[in-house]
Amino acid sequence: MPLAATGELIAAAAAARRAVPAFNIITLEHVEAVIAGAEHVDAPVVLQVSENAVKFRYGRLLPLARAAAEAAARAAVPVALHLDHVHSDGLLRQAPGAGFSSVMYDAARLPYEQNLAVTRAAADWAHAQGLWIEAELGQVGGKNGEPPPDPHAPGARTDPGQAAAFVADSGVDALAVAVGSTHAMTTRTAALDHGLLKRLSAALDVPLVLHGSSGLPDEELKAAVAGGIAKVNIGTALNVAMTGAIRQFLAAHPEAADSRRYLGVGREAMVRTVARLITVLGDGGEHSPVHES
User: Region (Disordered) spans which residues (predicted)?
Assistant: First the structure.
């Protein structure tokens, strides 16, 4: 089916008190696994390409984006493409021609006034191109190996009043909020500030986005959706599943040299992870969820 629009998927999910899962992709195996997992539970999904993933692919956006778009066109469920954690204006401007309907422009590292100014400019440009745009306020640490922020440090959590002003003044369509999660966690031990999430949900009239969700247990994810999160970013959970399955396979088959054998095992592990997490987030249709082994 044709590529879906991220904003439309999220608006429908928010209206139904659900969340759209947005999975970060790095390889073709990621693309295929996310779509297969979503098809298994009959749910829409977002494929995300981050600026870091583009850097890994020798700085070229189109090869991965074109592969994702082709796979999405053959999917049995709605699939949207989202350009994630964009810092570069040059990369931002490639989004419309590469099939993306949405972008997350990340200037959260900057002081508030600078974040607002560059995000406003990005939002104006994105809207002129028909793109839905997400921004971030607060500090969701853990990117590029950085340590998580001190939870008591200024700016480590998103302030509801400041967030309301930021959304109104920047014109963004969604806001990623810092409520206690951290990027790149390989253990599921994080806990969210649900009181703060409730206040943010009451203060803002745009969908809220949760980054760093791989470190959250199932009950925390469910509570986040119940508290107003409408888009959940998932990346590390896929990499943990893929890498673990490949390690196990190669340990049992040290003679293996055909990459299809271990990449296939890794891909199937990601399929199971995708299907299970979509079900946790409250989506999924007539099919039974796949349980991770």
Answer: 139-159
